[in-house]
Amino acid sequence: MRRNGAEDMSEDDERQQSPRSDLEFTSNKARYCKATGSASDHPDQVLENVLENVLHFLTSRRDRNSVSLVCKSWYRVEALTRSELFIGNCYAVSPGRATARFTRVRALHLKGKPRFADFNLMPPDWGAHFNPWLLAMAKPYPWLEKVYLKRMSVTNDDLATLAESFSGFKELVLVCCDGFGTNGLASFVSKCRQLRVLDLIESEVIHDGTDWISCFPQGESHLESLIFDCVEWPINFEALERLVARSPLLKKLRLNRYVSIGQLYRLMIQAPQLTHLGTGLFSPLEIAGQGDQELDYGTAFAACRSLVCLSGFREIIPDYLPAIYPVCANLTSLNFSYANINAEQLKPIISKCHKLRVFWVLDSICDEGLQAVAATCKELRELRVFPINAQEDIDSPVSEVGLQAISEGCQKLQSILYFCQRMTNEAVIAMSKNCPDLVVFRLCIMGRHKPDPVTGEPMDDGFGAIVMNCKKLTRLAVSGLLTDKAFEYIGKYGKLVRTLSVAFAGDSDMGLKYVLEGCSQLQKLEIRDSPFGDAALRSGLHHCYYMRFLWMSSCRLTRQGCQEIAHAMPRLVVEVIRSADMEMDDFVETLYMYRSLEGPRIDAPKYVTIL
Amino acid sequence: MGRATSSSSSSIESSNHFAFSSTGASASSQRDLSTDLQLGLSISTSPPYGREQPSDWPPIKPPLRQALAEEENECDSATFFVKVYMDGIPIGRKLDLLAHESYYDLIRTLQHMFNTNIIWAEAEVDGDHYEKYHVLTYEDKEGDWMMVGDVPWEMFLSAVRRLKITKC
């Protein structure tokens, strides 16, 4: 499901400077407090109270991690004052350990499966269950208000329990989650009386047949955000309309594709205070001319004076596009990633979007459309171009021409995800020079091992320029024909890179070695179909405790090699995952390796072997 | 649309194409070819993808891939309208055969359109009530009227000219 959280930056891993994060990895690394922390109790207590009051103001996770390392006293106080708990890998630490250390948590942010699981690279039922966390939190955190889960498995029972266990629960955000259905949603919304936010983003919702929208409690609702564009089942529109009518605080509403444009109209006139709108189908359910008069959709949009973020357009009929003209000037985020429109259809819209900062679009707009974007959207910070036809070796509607144009017109660009069939080093180099603020650079040349079409060279120089010139770069995804040279550049210059995605690239073990030895800030490394083997991995082992995880699939790892690694690194969990029906082989199909305080997990399915 | 090339050959073909179309030195195109060959050979032994477009590459999330594929199909789909007449009704109807996936689909539409029970090759018939049924036949390329349902669906699509629903 295309992400409709288009206003958020794509970089989901915040500043995680300290390698030990919030885990007490090496307990005897505590430094000494100079004057304080000595014999007498009384001064200690006073100081702790003062510290507590001060630390309440600290919100950054990274700062808190540093604070907790100062000395035992600071560690204690920091733990007492941390109200938002972020766990980047649900298996890195057990729920019990986390709740024991942090006793006053109000918000939990938990991530489960690695990202490559989104692309069918991992068999289902791998793990990442929310349930143990839920059960562990019920008693210690009675005041829990917010849960944010990404790539976790959540059941219907979990949802019911969540609402029952925490009377003041306010916000639930499920991103890329699965395992639950409309039944679970129904129990959750009916029991959760203080609910402000229910965001279902790119999650798979099972159809149990329940009309969950009708289950919101009667009376005035506190709802501020309701996002359900990923729900692939019809909803009870009348109930939704009534809900919106009694939710005066509602600011974000993202509808699914079962809401027609006529129904959208009815909702919009009830909620002109909306700031974020997902438009649903954006076409009528039946063919026009069936008796309904054409509504003035433009008026509805014009009435929404606070609208800054627009998405949806699931089955857009371009004739209706002019309706959004009134809001274009104020838009900061526009998600057209489901809209099959061409450059001519885009131009009248984009030419009005001067304030646009985030733009997601399909390559149906072609290079010409991108040129139009470059001409107007000078404030653009994030661009994502998705392929309407996800195949290799077909003609490219977007290419180096589009990228070049964007780099020249949108020089404040910070994040880009660009799918294309062809790309030149020249255009990538140009972007590296024109857009020095780039933090995220993800280029996906869909043809595997494709060289620069003009020079015939590998794409090494292009990506090399990116790591060299973009000094703030923290996330990189590479593609096209790449030799070890590209990795040499990345290792040498990519000193701030935290997330690296590699597919079908490199010549030899040296490639991986360069990266593991050079990229000191590397946290997440995901590699597929590249010729890296055991030797490469061994050479970079020292770095592995500093990483959240390493994923390698269809590379040249052997079971023997992985076994040695598991042996050498006791605090790493080394999972070997094979396809359900494949034999245990000498070659490892998928290696997923992560640091953990808990050792091998007990909920691994049978196709996962923990070495 | 896309050629269904194997992973190893696609890179060779593409680099060939580009190498010859550019003014680059032939030496570099040679090197690219051998690198491609090398990479191609080594990669083709790994399991997750075969010669077809793999479901896990390019990295598009399945729900989006599906949604766009559906859209594609709707735009590209051809139509094949045939005339349908029913006994006793002088005015015929037209039906798009390509909007149907199988005989069952077609029969369902026709039964709905003409408000009757239809017999075809695989129909189960209640012996006592023949008068309530109609038989579905089609005219083939040779002008003969045949009962619908004997040949595979695709073969039927290539042979059918028009349909007739006659009384039993």
TrEMBL record, chain A:
<comment type="pathway">
    <text>Protein modification; protein ubiquitination.</text>
</comment>
<feature type="domain" description="COI1 F-box">
    <location>
        <begin position="44"/>
        <end position="83"/>
    </location>
</feature>
<dbReference type="InterPro" id="IPR032675">
    <property type="entry name" value="LRR_dom_sf"/>
</dbReference>
<dbReference type="GO" id="GO:0019005">
    <property type="term" value="C:SCF ubiquitin ligase complex"/>
</dbReference>
<dbReference type="GO" id="GO:0005634">
    <property type="term" value="C:nucleus"/>
</dbReference>
<dbReference type="GO" id="GO:0031146">
    <property type="term" value="P:SCF-dependent proteasomal ubiquitin-dependent protein catabolic process"/>
</dbReference>
<feature type="region of interest" description="Disordered">
    <location>
        <begin position="1"/>
        <end position="24"/>
    </location>
</feature>
<feature type="domain" description="Transport inhibitor response 1">
    <location>
        <begin position="104"/>
        <end position="149"/>
    </location>
</feature>
<dbReference type="Pfam" id="PF18511">
    <property type="entry name" value="F-box_5"/>
</dbReference>
<keyword id="KW-0539">Nucleus</keyword>
<dbReference type="Pfam" id="PF18791">
    <property type="entry name" value="Transp_inhibit"/>
</dbReference>
<dbReference type="InterPro" id="IPR041101">
    <property type="entry name" value="Transp_inhibit"/>
</dbReference>
<dbReference type="InterPro" id="IPR041567">
    <property type="entry name" value="COI1_F-box"/>
</dbReference>
<protein>
    <submittedName>
        <fullName>Transport inhibitor response 1-like protein</fullName>
    </submittedName>
</protein>
<dbReference type="GO" id="GO:0009734">
    <property type="term" value="P:auxin-activated signaling pathway"/>
</dbReference>
<keyword id="KW-0927">Auxin signaling pathway</keyword>
<keyword id="KW-0833">Ubl conjugation pathway</keyword>
<dbReference type="InterPro" id="IPR006553">
    <property type="entry name" value="Leu-rich_rpt_Cys-con_subtyp"/>
</dbReference>
TrEMBL record, chain B:
<keyword id="KW-0678">Repressor</keyword>
<protein>
    <recommendedName>
        <fullName>Auxin-responsive protein</fullName>
    </recommendedName>
</protein>
<feature type="domain" description="PB1">
    <location>
        <begin position="79"/>
        <end position="168"/>
    </location>
</feature>
<feature type="region of interest" description="Disordered">
    <location>
        <begin position="40"/>
        <end position="61"/>
    </location>
</feature>
<dbReference type="GO" id="GO:0005634">
    <property type="term" value="C:nucleus"/>
</dbReference>
<dbReference type="InterPro" id="IPR003311">
    <property type="entry name" value="AUX_IAA"/>
</dbReference>
<keyword id="KW-0805">Transcription regulation</keyword>
<keyword id="KW-0927">Auxin signaling pathway</keyword>
<comment type="function">
    <text>Aux/IAA proteins are short-lived transcriptional factors that function as repressors of early auxin response genes at low auxin concentrations.</text>
</comment>
<comment type="subunit">
    <text>Homodimers and heterodimers.</text>
</comment>
<dbReference type="InterPro" id="IPR033389">
    <property type="entry name" value="AUX/IAA_dom"/>
</dbReference>
<dbReference type="GO" id="GO:0009734">
    <property type="term" value="P:auxin-activated signaling pathway"/>
</dbReference>
<dbReference type="GO" id="GO:0006355">
    <property type="term" value="P:regulation of DNA-templated transcription"/>
</dbReference>
<dbReference type="Pfam" id="PF02309">
    <property type="entry name" value="AUX_IAA"/>
</dbReference>
<keyword id="KW-0804">Transcription</keyword>
<dbReference type="InterPro" id="IPR053793">
    <property type="entry name" value="PB1-like"/>
</dbReference>
<comment type="similarity">
    <text>Belongs to the Aux/IAA family.</text>
</comment>
<keyword id="KW-0539">Nucleus</keyword>
